[in-house]
Model the fold of this input.
Amino acid sequence: MVISSLGSYADVIVLVEKIYIAHPRYALESQLVKLNDGYEGGWSMTNGAKRGRLEIMAEILLFCCDRKTKTNIMYRTNLNYAQMQNHLKTLTKRGLLTVDKRNYITTEKGRRFAELFIELNELLKDEKSRV
Done:
């Protein structure tokens, strides 16, 4: 596997960050890579608190960067079927997700939403640390 030949997962993250830093347009992409691939069980920005609607939407969008089925989305985001259906309907209606042969994939608009969500959370995290 490529990761083992590079040393550790942290080394891969650093390598990816250096690549993206070289191209300012992709500055937030390094955060997306960390959040999307960094934790197999999912990610959380609320540190144990209940997730809000926007966080769940961002989690679905990050997970669906590659084609994913409803079952994969439901298990990865820890939602029941009715909740998942509601979120998928909202995201597709707003053009953040597309459906292709029972698979969901994030659109460019959806990627932008996820990037902005991460940026706002980072800004709020910085504000909380100063208080």
Remarks:
- The first strand starts at residue 97 and ends at 100.
